[in-house]
Amino acid sequence: MATIGLIGAGNIGSQLARLAVAQGHAVVVSNSRGPETLVDLVAELGDSARAGTTAEAAQEGEVVVVTIPLHAIGSVPVEPLAGKIVIDTNNYYPYRDGEIPELDQEATTTAELLQRHLPTSKVVKAFNHIVASELTEHGQEPGTSGRRALVVAGDDPDARTWVAQLVDSFGYDAVELEPLSEGWRIQRDTPGYGTRRTADELRADLAAATRAPAGS
User: Fold this and answer.
1) How far apart are the C-alpha atoms of 45 and 133, rounded to whole Å?
2) Angle at CA 122, nearest 5°, toward 120 and 128?
3) How far is CA 18 from CA 6, 56, 79, in A?
4) CA 46 to CA 42: how far, in whole Å?
5) What is the Cα–Cα distance from 68 to 164, expressed in whole angstroms?
6) How many whole angstroms separate alpha carbon 155 and alpha carbon 19?
7) pTM score
8) What three-state secondary structure class fits 38?
9) Strand ranges (DSSP E) for 40-121?
10) What radius of gyration do the chain's Cα atoms show?
11) What pLDDT digit, counting tens, does each position of 43-83 carry?
């Protein structure tokens, strides 16, 4: 069991906190508005959860989930996350995040932007291609026919394996993808994004994904 810090407690963050607590992990949840705004969520989660500042979630989390709008990743603490696994759930939405030329031109990915900001952390992309509400609805026991699969992309094999095991404990088959830069294969507008897929179907979607700069 681990202490999981959550930087962001919106739709995805709150769902991951529920799943983590159900599996016996402790969680420290945070958002940009302050711990006092998370009283109801912590009360729901129970004794294994507490609300903290973003800095506290980063410091106390053995593994930390960054689940905030992309335009805010510059606010993620760097030093407390050194050497840690950092799970990135983000997607790029220009209407929300503003236009980011590197992403528009497919020169990089959202997770690589976070890795650049956190150069000594082990960034792993996960939980970005499932509707938040489905995280607590679609999980099934290992070996269940038609079990849904989720991608885990990253450079560090040990970090990838840890997150893959977390995904499995949450009720999903994990399809590992390397390196981190290959995470574009499951970003917005790719075949596997948002759709329910088994592991074999998801691998086929990843192979079928194409990449082109905006406007091309």
Assistant:
1) 16
2) 135
3) 11, 19, 27
4) 6
5) 21
6) 25
7) 0.95
8) helix
9) 49-51, 63-66, 85-88
10) 16
11) 999 999 999 999 999 999 999 999 999 999 999 999 999 99
